[in-house]
Specification:
alpha+beta; Jelly Rolls; Immunoglobulin-like; TIM Barrel; 5 domains; six-stranded antiparallel β-sheet; six-stranded parallel β-sheet; 15 helices; 33% strand; binds beta-D-mannopyranose; glycosidase; EC 3.2.1.25; beta-mannosidase; glycoprotein; Ig-like_GH2
């Protein structure tokens, strides 16, 4: 008789306690798996919410204890024992150092959060002869920091070096962002200064969690599909694709059926003979439906299913096991080739033969407690990226190999993924047992994720080469020869983990995913890792290193910028959520936000509050004395900075052979808790002002103006980006407006159609500003706002517009007062809109329905041109009366706002 694989979930009925403490020595009910000790303590009201106020401090003790989880279960009581069937306990993920016991006997020791484990317990059960009896599964979670310290001591021959974010984490294969950045015991060096304060990652709290962060279950089977992988090869003309479907089997099965379908239509069904542990069959697909990033086409997803059969012509009752995966047919290249007229080489992604400008952002885990993330939340974040016209997300190496739900959302929504391996900001060791663990982790995670068409590149690490570079300069450490390729010599060098980034990981990727690009690090390439002419760069000369003005972004370009950004505070509703409930929360009270204890606690950036204030003061009349002002000002400056960068860098995407800049990924998309950080939307997914400028600057068609001032004369450089695949014919109008009076001073209409070639920027030309204000005096250029409107040559409808003010904005004599702006709610066929008009140029006009929490705007944070009506659509407004809309904008002496009731 054939017995099909069965799975018994072990998610429910767990209890937990502290191992030998006094407080929580009695068993408490745990939540269903996946879970973690912080989440269980929170659910049991044993701790306050670590995200609120300064509660992070109050829950620090949790990480210093040992925790035990336990569950009783019976095994398939009705099944007879049978030696040809296996019983296997599967642990998809244990965080991190554990001892697992079954009925008191140790069956597993773990030390890597990123690994899954399968433990064959057949023997144990046969020997205990207790198949239908109650069993006890117990997992002890040891103190990760202590274990790390032990490892460091045992391997004191290694450097264990990091400039920031602490060293102990380097010994632990656990999400690095959980950890401490420095402590009196473990001082760290930041840009030449020893720092011994205790902080988390520079956007996260220190919450060193532990627990069963992924499911646990029991499998019983005669045979199972150990893996199902699909390699797709697409012909150049896209007329045909060959799928190589490989089935790996554990146990005895003679045949497997392979079914492939798309949109409910079967494309192929065949039975293959299984002659070894891994059997591969090639399937030809004519006229394949391709998977495209959303900017280029549809996200066609095929399903492949394999079913293990005991006989060739068997019925459903003879099926042993089956497994299904969704995949896409697409070809991804990372193109590095010479450029016309510039040094170095290109660095751009080509999908199905089409080069893309990869606009996007970097991803950190969406919660400090990784098991709390739901598929819905992943979907919402990825949708948020798409809604802001992003096409690539970079999973940063200090978090986790993301949950399947993340990739499902990217596959469905057409977002490309740059995936770092999990190493960040440090000189990691490479002793043999560490190496072995890393290799298993990489093999498992690449195998788990390789069917996802959204993954465009795997990358060795985050900033480890940069750390090595800085370590050499500032600390005389991490000496290494970049040409050395002998594994043993690399292991003994000052930068041992090159063994992973340059040898082991590329080897594994070549074997498991030969068609997907591999890149050693982010950043990497060229004469040193941040070479602006080769590979990718992290652009931190703005904000971190030299604190250059954000206006410099366009000239601080690289072939692809995989990190850059500025911090800002979250939406006030999110701030309110983390302020202590027992204290009055007031947005307009006078208080110094740069020193307020809760605002400071919820900004983990080194010099964060100081940097926010300085960037704001250098650019706008800054108000750090009320929460309302602080939030608006910090968000406006971040929004301006990011839009300057995207506008400048997209301009450098100039077509074949001239891909001078091929992408920009903002640091960062999201947050893991409510915090002031570099994210463009806060932890509650509430958009910051930057959300709107990132969206605007990455529309398929945009226009730009750059002011070039030479002594007293001003030249305007103008350009347009057409990121669509169609050639466009446009006409355009440039106008100059007086910011004080709203008077139009000058206009230039270009009515002869200009061609914008597809998938590149086009220079429209230069305009010398020779006009004068009145007879006597040349303009002060800061009095002028320029606008450019790009219209279709065929029907003159406006395609896009851009508004350009003098910078820094604090030198603009705005005269925008309350009475200059008008807003009215208009019901249109497509839904309600707020129509905005202004009689003078206005900057950063931001709308917020204060009493509502479900309003979603389709645009916001706009600049206004006199006489023009801008319509901002929205959904989700409640039916109630008394709905108050607050309108913010930037005035001459500071931010201003007014309330309109509807
Ligand atoms: C980069 C990242 C992160 C960090 C961010 C902001 O260096 O790789 O490690 O959080 O900058 O400082």
């Amino acid at each position: 008789m054939v017995i099909a694989k069965k799975t018994l979930s072990l998610s429910e009925g767990w209890k937990y306690r502290e191992s030998n403490g006094t407080v929580l020595h009695d068993w408490q009910d745990a939540q269903s798996l996946p879970t973690s000790v912080h989440l269980d303590l929170l659910a049991n009201h044993a701790i306050p919410d670590p995200f609120q106020a300064k509660n992070e401090e109050l829950v620090k003790w949790i990480a210093t204890r040992t925790w035990i989880y336990e569950k009783h279960f019976t095994i398939f009581p009705q099944e007879p024992t049978n030696k040809s069937r296996k019983l296997v306990l599967v642990f998809e993920g244990l965080d991190t150092y554990t001892t697992v016991k079954l009925d008191g006997k140790a069956i597993l020791e773990t030390d890597n959060m990123f690994l899954s484990h399968r433990v064959d317990i057949t023997e144990h059960l046969v020997n205990t002869k207790a198949v239908d009896a109650m069993h006890t599964l117990q997992i002890t979670f040891h103190n990760a920091e202590q274990k790390a310290a032990e490892k460091m001591e045992k391997h004191s021959e290694y450097s264990w070096f990091s400039f920031h974010f602490g060293n102990k984490r380097l010994a632990v294969r656990k999400a690095q962002y959980h950890f401490v950045r420095g402590s009196a015991m473990d001082p760290v060096l930041i840009l030449g200064k020893m720092i011994d304060d205790i902080q988390g990652w520079d956007w996260g709290p220190i919450l060193i969690d532990c627990g069963p962060w992924k499911p646990i279950y029991l499998e019983t089977y005669e045979a199972r599909v150990a893996d199902l992988s699909i390699r797709t090869q697409l012909d150049l003309d896209h007329q045909q694709a060959v799928l190589r479907v490989s089935v790996e089997v554990e146990g005895k099965a003679s045949f497997a059926r392979i079914d492939v379908e798309i949109d409910g239509t079967r494309v192929e069904s065949r039975i293959i003979t299984l002659d070894s542990q891994k059997t591969t069959t090639a399937i030809r697909i004519r006229n394949p439906k391709l998977w495209w990033p959303w900017t280029l086409g549809d996200q066609n997803l095929y399903t492949v299913r394999t079913t293990l059969l005991s006989h060739e012509n068997c019925s459903a009752k003879d099926e042993l096991d089956s497994l299904e995966k969704k995949f896409g047919i697409r070809k991804i290249d990372l193109v590095r080739q010479p450029l016309q007229g510039q040094e170095g080489a290109s660095f751009f992604f080509r999908v199905n033969g089409v080069p893309i400008f990869a606009a996007g952002s970097c991803w950190v885990p969406i919660d400090s407690f990784t098991s709390r993330a739901t598929p819905e939340k992943y979907h919402s974040w990825i949708k948020l990226a798409k809604d802001t016209n992003q096409v690539m997300i970079r999973i940063w190496g200090g978090g986790i190999y993301e949950h399947d739900a993340f990739f499902d959302a990217c596959d469905e929504l057409g977002i490309l993924v740059w995936h770092d391996f999990m190493f960040a900001c440090g000189i990691y060791p490479a002793y043999p047992s560490f190496e072995e663990s890393v290799i298993s982790e990489v093999r498992q995670n690449v195998s788990r994720l390789r069917h996802h068409p959204s993954i465009a590149v795997w990358c060795g690490n985050n900033e480890d080469y940069a750390i090595a570079h800085l370590a050499q300069i500032h600390a005389g450490k991490a000496e290494y020869d970049p040409t050395e390729m002998d594994p043993e010599r690399i292991r003994e060098s000052g930068f041992p983990a090159r063994l992973f980034y340059e040898i082991r990981l590329p080897e594994i990727c070549k074997e498991l995913i030969p068609d997907i690009p591999y890149w050693p690090g982010s950043p990497f390439g060229g004469s040193f890792c941040n070479d602006t002419t080769v590979g990718d760069i992290h652009q931190w000369h703005v904000w971190h290193l030299d604190k250059f003005p954000y206006q410099d972004y366009p000239k601080l370009s690289g072939r692809m910028i995989t990190e850059f950004g500025l911090q800002s505070a979250p939406h006030w509703k999110t701030v309110k959520q983390y302020f202590p409930a027992d204290q009055p929360f007031c947005l307009d009270k006078k208080q110094d936000c740069a020193t307020d204890e809760y605002m400071v606690w919820h900004n983990k950036g080194k010099d964060g509050p100081e940097n926010i204030a300085n960037y704001a003061k250098n650019n706008i009349p800054f108000d750090g004395q009320s929460l309302r002002g602080y939030i608006y000002c910090s968000q406006l400056v971040q929004a301006e900075g990011l839009s300057t960068a995207f506008r400048g860098w997209r301009r450098l995407w100039q077509g074949p052979g001239r891909e001078y800049c091929a992408g920009a990924l903002v640091w960062q998309l999201n947050d893991c808790w409510p915090v002031t950080s570099w994210s463009i939307a806060d932890h509650e997914l509430r958009p910051k002002l930057a959300y709107w400028t990132v969206k605007r600057e990455n529309q398929p068609i945009t226009a730009g103006i750059a002011r070039v001032l030479n002594n007293d004369s001003l030249t305007l450089e103008t350009w347009a980006c057409n990121m669509t695949m169609q050639q466009l014919c446009v006409i355009y109008e440039i106008q100059a407006w007086h910011v004080k009076t709203g008077q139009r001073i000058w206009a230039q209409k270009v009515f002869s159609p200009t061609t914008l070639d597809p998938n590149r920027s086009t220079e429209l030309g230069k305009v010398e500003c020779s006009f004068k204000l009145g007879e006597e005096k040349q303009f002060e250029w800061n009095n002028l706002m320029f606008s450019i409107h790009l219209s279709s040559a065929s029907d003159s409808s406006v395609i896009t517009r851009y508004v350009n003010f003098h910078e820094p904005l604090k030198e603009v004599p705005f005269s925008s007062q309350e009475e200059h702006i008008k807003a009215q709610l208009v019901e249109q066929e497509t839904g309600p809109v707020i129509e905005l008009t202004a009689s003078v140029p206005m900057k950063g006009v931001y709308l917020d329905f204060e009493g509502e929490d479900k309003v979603d705007w389709d645009d916001n944070g706009v600049d206004l041109v006199p006489g023009e009506t801008i319509k901002l659509g929205f959904t989700g407004l409640s039916d109630g009366k008394d709905r108050k809309l607050r309108i913010y904008w930037l005035g001459e002496t500071g931010w201003q706002s007014k309330i309109i009731g509807f």
